[in-house]
Design a protein that fits this description.
heterodimer; A: about 350 residues; alpha/beta; Rossmann fold; 8 strands; about 15% strand; elongated; B: about 375 residues; globular
């Protein structure tokens, strides 16, 4: 078993509608985001899983064809739950946005021909990030009946929860504060108010930013830094999710064979005797190699324990996902979803 | 073995024709560490090296003696006593805002520079625009190279690339800048006085008035004025800026440049590596090979995972928990090692002509020059 995690929130982040998942590159944030979406869907919720980096991570994780720029169902779940995938594309989002708010009609096409769309989505400061978040914001507010009128009872929201596979930790504070930044650049007008609404959502109790990490020095350091920065920005930080924890259930038993030296005479004799008891006679070199492995593992776990202490000091709920030896496929995502649910990541 | 060649790092670094090594790959694969280790190994083999790191982890930066981010190369001490004579290693961290400011100052009049530096749009672009890091890494590489040529300071530049959302961003940055500068939009926005009215008619394209009107509606008049001031002010220096970006891009295609793609034995990282390899080929950029970090080392190869697992069960039944744990650990390690080998095998099968080197994962992060030297030793096979 992985080292015991902090006692988790009893309510499983009830009331949170937007789960932002970040993490250093290579920590598995896309997998964890997908698993969280599945865990929520398993509770019967309609979940939108959105990615914003144009990597088609959702399509790869759920083993479905590359996502178009529209929302596509990628997985069903018990009790009517489902995961809908969205690969947010900045250009499409901008054209949709212009159409929605300015009823531009043909001007949208003209802007495109003049390169204004390219300018806005690749060069203009912050606009790209604002569009990406804006698209997620729009989905979070959308209601099933578009013809909803004032006075009539509110219609059901299109999504019960949204999981955003966000940019990596190095970019996340900037990404999430882009609303505030752009609101500052555009001091009034529609962009200003739009950016303001986004900022409001990101700071509200309906949002949590979860950080995925490995129990290694660099990702842990980045996690500590990111949490501090997010707190400073007033963003609600959620869980720290420890991915690929190596410690095994039989760690204590292994420790009996750990002889921290270049050679392992005592442990070698013990292991050879144990093996002999079941009629296995291995060459001394193989026994040595097995003991080297034991030593490397206990050494690694000792480092993990150090890093865990650093994470505990952050004071956020910790969730642990063990290292899966078969690598990551759809089955692994399902398995991780259950682990997240068991540890209180969902209501 | 399906593989045709092992990537010979020492031969690459010893070749005096190698003047630039670019390390690229997706995030979290050990790109920066690889760049620093290559630079150290080259320096200890007698080359005069500068390594440009983009966003090093604190400990790695400290291990190189980089305590402050001052945007200039600093000598790294602690080269091995038995290092080849004549070698030296300088290291620097990229400060993108400072690099951008320097470009502005170098290419504009003092008055124009002042105006640009104070513009809110410039401040946002230079410090927070996703993509600026790529431009500035390219700019800094160009600067280091011209200094190397001018002063003979270095005969090898090792560059780490920014932690982009995609490894390809680094290659696309100069082109994106180019298309932006060539675009009609920039001319339009830089010349507000000509918009609409007679100018619009003269340009035949009646859409221009519509664009102008739309921009004002969407951005608001004030923001549009800020953008215009920014673009106008930058216009004066764009020529030089762009010329350099093009030059640096061309430099990357030359024989003296070697791209090293860094990956990890994970599906996503290797897929990204495949994209990069294909892209380099398409652009005619010289690829030296692929480094696959974080490989699970395997030992006691004579004992298969299946057998170890069976024996572990027997040992558990015989109430020998320690030995049982050791054998089941071996089974797990062997499975992971086999999975890693398979992933790499699949990659090499798809790219038979590309040299690859596999590097076993380290128990801990690099803290000092000695740790870096160990990484380098493993890289060299």
């Amino acid at each position: 078993m992985p080292p015991a995690p902090d006692p988790l929130r009893a309510d499983g982040f009830a009331g949170v509608r937007l789960h932002v998942v970040t993490g250093k590159g290579g920590t598995g944030k896309t997998t964890v985001a997908a698993a969280l979406a599945v865990a929520l869907a398993n509770r019967g919720l309609k979940v939108l899983l959105a990615e914003v980096e144009g990597r088609q991570g959702i399509s790869q994780t759920f083993d479905v064809p590359p996502l178009p720029t529209t929302e596509v169902r990628v997985a069903g779940a018990a009790h009517g739950g489902e995961v809908v995938g969205l690969a947010v594309d900045a250009k499409t989002a901008l054209l949709e946005y212009l159409q929605l708010f300015y009823k531009l009609g043909r001007a949208g096409g003209v802007l495109e021909r003049f390169g204004a769309i390219d300018f806005a989505t690749t060069i203009a400061p912050g606009v790209r990030d604002l569009l990406l978040i804006g698209r997620v914001y729009e989905a979070s507010r959308r209601r099933l009946d578009a013809k909803h009128h004032r006075g009539s009872p509110p219609e059901e929201l299109a999504y019960d929860a949204i999981v955003l596979d966000a940019p990596p930790t190095g970019r996340i504070p900037r990404f999430l504060s882009v609303g505030a930044e752009v609101a500052g650049l555009a001091r009034m007008g529609p962009i200003h108010s739009q950016a303001g609404s986004i900022t409001e959502l990101l700071h509200s109790p309906a949002t949590r930013v979860h950080v995925v990490t490995l129990l290694e020095e660099m990702p842990v350091q980045e996690t500590v830094d990111a949490v501090a920065e997010l707190r400073e920005l007033g963003m609600p930080v959620g869980a720290v999710i420890i991915n690929q924890a190596r410690a095994r259930e039989d760690l204590d038993a292994l420790a009996d064979l750990d002889e921290p030296r270049a050679t392992h005479p005592v442990a070698a004799a013990q292991l050879a005797a144990d093996l002999d008891a079941v009629g296995l006679d291995l060459p001394p070199a193989t026994v040595e190699a097995l003991l080297d492995q034991v030593h490397r593992h206990t050494e690694r776990v000792a480092l993990e324990v150090e890093q865990l202490a650093v994470l505990e000091a952050i004071g956020q709920p910790l969730v642990t996902v063990p290292f899966l030896i078969d690598g990551i496929d759809l089955d692994a995502v399902t398995e991780i979803a259950d682990l997240l649910a068991d540890q209180g990541m969902v209501p | 073995m399906a593989r045709t060649a092992e990537l010979d790092i020492d031969a690459l670094l010893a070749d005096r024709h190698t003047r630039i090594v670019v390390c690229c790959g997706s995030g979290g694969v050990g790109k920066t560490t690889t760049a620093a280790a290559l630079a150290l190994r080259a320096a200890e083999a007698g080359r005069q090296v500068v390594v440009l790191t983009i966003d090093p982890a604190r400990r790695l930066a400290q291990s190189l003696g980089l305590t402050e981010l001052d945007n200039v190369p600093r000598p790294v001490t602690g080269l091995a006593d038995d290092a080849a004579p004549g070698g030296r290693l300088d290291a620097m961290m990229l400060d993108m805002k400072r690099t951008f400011d320097e470009v502005v100052l170098a290419h504009s009049t003092p008055e124009a520079a002042e105006q640009i530096l104070a513009n809110p749009f410039y401040q946002a672009v230079s410090s927070s625009f996703a993509g600026t890091q790529e431009y500035m890494a390219m700019e800094k590489l160009g600067q280091l190279r011209s200094r190397a040529d001018r002063e003979g300071t270095w005969d090898l530049i090792v560059v780490d690339t920014p932690p982009s959302r995609s490894a390809l961003d680094f290659l696309d940055a100069p082109k994106r800048l180019g298309s932006f500068l060539d675009g009609r939009f920039i001319r339009l926005i830089a010349a507000p006085a000509k918009m609409g009215g007679r100018a619009g008619l003269r340009l035949v394209n009646v859409g221009i008035g519509l664009v102008s009107k739309t921009l004002t509606t969407v951005l608001g008049g004030e923001m549009l004025r800020d953008v215009q001031t920014f673009v106008n002010a930058l216009d004066t220096m764009f020529g030089g800026f762009r010329e350099r970006a093009d030059l640096t891009y061309a430099l990357l295609k030359e024989g003296g440049t070697a791209f090293v793609v860094v990956a990890a034995p994970e599906r996503d990282a290797l897929r990204e590596a495949s994209y990069f390899v294909a892209r380099l080929e398409q652009e005619g950029m010289p690829l030296a090979g692929v480094v696959v970090n974080r490989m699970q080392p395997s030992a006691a190869a004579g004992l298969t995972a299946a057998r170890a697992r069976a024996v572990a069960e027997q040992l558990a039944e015989a109430d020998r928990p320690a030995a049982s744990a050791a054998l089941s650990l071996h089974a797990e390690v062997s499975d992971v090692a086999a999975r890693h080998r398979n992933l790499v095998r699949r990659f090499t099968a798809g790219h038979p002509s590309i040299p690859v080197v596999e590097v076993a994962s380290l128990a801990q992060d690099v803290h000092d020059v000695d740790g870096l030297r160990e990484v380098a030793r493993r890289l060299a096979g």
